[in-house]
Amino acid sequence: MDLEDDTTILSTLKSFNTFISRPERPQLPSERSAGSGVLQSQYKRSMEILEAAERVHSQNRFLQLDQEKKQMELSHKRARFELEKAASNSARDFEHELDRNQDLLARVKKLEGREFEADKNLSDQVEENQVLRRNLEAVNKKLEERDTKLNTANKTITSLKDELRELRQKIQNQDLVFSAQTLEKQELQEQLDLQRRKYQEILQLCQTLQAAQSSCSEHIIKIKELERRLILQEQDMAIVKTIKSEAAKVTDLEKELKRLREENSFLRESRENYNLLKEEAEGLGKKLERMEKTKEELVNVELEKQRLVEKLQAWENLGQSTGLNIRKPEDLSREVIQIQQREIALKEQNYTLNSRVRSVERLQSELRAELTQQCTKTMEEQKKREAQDALVRRLQKRVLLLTKERDGMRSILESYDSELASTEYSPQLNKRLREAEEVLQRTQSHNSEMEVEMELDSLKKQPASSPESSSSVSKEEENTLRKKIEDLEAERQRLEEQNNILEMRLERNNMQGDYDPVKTRVLHFRMNPSSVAKQQRQQEVETLREEVTTLRELVRSLQEGGGMLHAQDSSGIYTPNISLSLPPSKEVQDLRKQMESSELRNQRLKEVFQKKIQEFRTVCYVLTGYQIDITTENQYRLTSVYAEHMDDSLLFKKGSKGSMQLMETEFSKTLGEMVDLHLHHQKSIPAFLSAVTLDLFGRQTTI
Amino acid sequence: MTSTLKGITLKGSAELVAEFFSFGINSILYQRGIYPPETFTRVTHYDMSLQVSTEPRLNNYLTNVVSQLKEWLFECSVQKLVLVITCLETNEVLERWQFDIECDKSAKESSSAPREKSIKTIQDEIRSVIRQITGTVTFLPLLETQCSFDLLVYTDKDLVVPDKWEESGPQIIDQSEEVRLRSFTTSIHKVSSMVAYKRTDSACST
């Protein structure tokens, strides 16, 4: 049944597909209408077939569902059987469980009874335990007490042992110290002896030195006297020699004297002659000068005379040379005046002519400028006109082309219209109609714009061509063009400003020294002064650094050397590891040694004094029975050996005159009788003190 | 030699410009105190008295540079000459004297005739430039620290670098004030001068 349905479905589907896949032929409008009726019938058939297919499908599904239902019922029955089996099994199990449960309950009860008995036993046991614990605690406490007692006893034993040890050590130390002191005392005595001997020797040496010095001084005085005598003798010798020589010269001098006297007389005579001759010579010389001057004057005068004669001749000839009627100088002056007047007139003419020439030149230059302007204008106008002519021609051609297109389109549309009348309208035809109409409208508008432009152009060329109407359209065009021009001008200005800014930046960079690495290269001489100077500087810096490091090490070594000396007791100097260390002088070494030795001496002396003082105080304490302490300035506190308490003490103050006065203390208050007896009546402090010791001793021994 | 001829040839122009640089650099070194004034001596040139250094090492360096510069001027391959003054302690550039050189390459052709410009006018122009350089001392900041100088030459990229020369940076001053000075031209070479100095509120500390 299903297969038959399937085959019918398949066959119908195949026929439908073949119908759809047939190629569509482009049909004329007449065939289109017939074809549509066929299509409709086919469509109806296809719809019927589809409905049949659907019905078949539904029937198929119904059968399938029936089958499924039967299968489900079968499975249901099987399941029920199984469940019943399971139920019976579970009931049997349940009965088994119940029996077991009862058994377990009986057991539980037995166990509970046993538990109860066990609890009772437990509580009894616990009570016994507590009692035992209490007994234990008491015993423990007793044990602890015994332990603490033992510990205290042990501690006392250890402390006593320590004390023993310390005392023994002290004894040993004191023995050592005593021996050391005796040794030192011996050493010091030996040194003292040495020093005394040296001192005596030095004294003797001093005395000998002084004697020698005195003898020396005497000798020196004698030597000085002898030297003085020697000098005097030498001077006398020199004087004697000069006198001898002078004596020899005397005879020569006498001869010369005679000769000179004769000459003197001769010269006196000749002097008078000489004076006379001098006067004559002077007179002659003056005459000569005068003569020479007159000669020169004569020469000059003759030259002048010649010149004047020539001048005169020239002047006389002037009249002949110029051809004028000149005999006297007055004629000449007249002629000159005339000439001058003529000259003035000519100059005036010259000035006027110059001014005229200049004005004419100016006019000429202005006219030339105007001419050039007019020429440029005409050239521009001509160019514009030519451009406009070319535009007009182009537009005319376009117009022709457009009109032809329009005619063509019109004819097409007419043909379409004629065809349209025979057949029905289809949607595609409508669309085409509309498109054609749009194209027509566009062309019409374009055409109108072209006409308008042409009119505008003709308007612009008014002086050359005939003017047109339609001014409103041209004004719109003008406005749009003006706006364009303004925009362009604004852009141009902006670009000019940008250009200026960039040029300024470029100029600035150029001034700062910027360069284009593609085109230029910067070179400099390798051994240039700045690099040389830098190298020198670096070298200087390095040398300075080295110096600094060496100096620092020196300083450190010196500081360490000084510190070491203070700590050590050596005589040697710490040698550093540098070659530049200065050897310290001997004086410094000696001074350092002296300083160390003196410090040691001081320390030893201090120790010795302290020990002596301590010894003395203990001896006093032992012998007198009082320990004397100095509390403050001039106040002495005495504590007795047999004092009952630590604070029992007597205070004595030293007065301004040197007398000792007893100050009141608590202890002294108890000794009021003794104070009265010994201090006030007997006025003896040693008696008072001894009485106090006897009293305290008596008290001690009785107690 | 060029004073007897009527016109200026390329060679003569290169010599004039090199001579100007030699005297100009010496006067700048004297004015700014890079070298002590007692090492300078007075000579007369361009109808004025100029200061020229007597230190032999400096003069040797200057003659080397100027002779090389003359060659380059003859080949028209040099664009700028810069005198850079640096502080020795901090290696900062304190001053920059820049001379822009524009060469008329048409004079390189062998067919070109010497240009008509009298030596006297060129010398007058050079004199005014050097006088202006001397006058700049009034507004340039004092160089308080030890300074040294260097000469940089901006040449065309395709030039062969000679033996003793090497490439260097432009050594531009940061935060500089620039002043443009006079220029002179020999009708073949035009030399314009300017000075850039570091602003005084950020000067090199001593």
UniProtKB/TrEMBL annotation, chain A:
Belongs to the MAD1 family. PANTHER family: MITOTIC SPINDLE ASSEMBLY CHECKPOINT PROTEIN MAD1, MITOTIC SPINDLE ASSEMBLY CHECKPOINT PROTEIN MAD1 MITOTIC ARREST DEFICIENT-LIKE PROTEIN 1. The lineage of its organism: Eukaryota, Metazoa, Chordata, Craniata, Vertebrata. Keywords: Acetylation, Cell cycle, Cell division, Centromere, Chromosome, Coiled coil, Cytoplasm, Cytoskeleton, Isopeptide bond, Kinetochore, Mitosis, Nucleus, Phosphoprotein, Ubl conjugation. Component of the spindle-assembly checkpoint that prevents the onset of anaphase until all chromosomes are properly aligned at the metaphase plate. Forms a heterotetrameric complex with the closed conformation form of MAD2L1 (C-MAD2) at unattached kinetochores during prometaphase, recruits an open conformation of MAD2L1 (O-MAD2) and promotes the conversion of O-MAD2 to C-MAD2, which ensures mitotic checkpoint signaling. This is Mitotic spindle assembly checkpoint protein MAD1. The keyword Acetylation applies. Its main location: nucleus.
Automatic annotation (TrEMBL), chain B:
GO terms for biological process: cell division; negative regulation of mitotic cell cycle phase transition; regulation of nuclear division. GO terms for cellular component: mitotic spindle assembly checkpoint MAD1-MAD2 complex; nucleus. The keyword Nucleus applies. Pfam families: HORMA (PF02301). Keywords: Cell cycle, Cell division, Mitosis, Nucleus. Residues 11-195 form the HORMA domain. It is found in: Nucleus. The keyword Nucleotide-binding does not apply. Belongs to the MAD2 family. This is Mitotic spindle assembly checkpoint protein MAD2A. It comes from Oryzias latipes (Japanese rice fish). The gene is mad2.
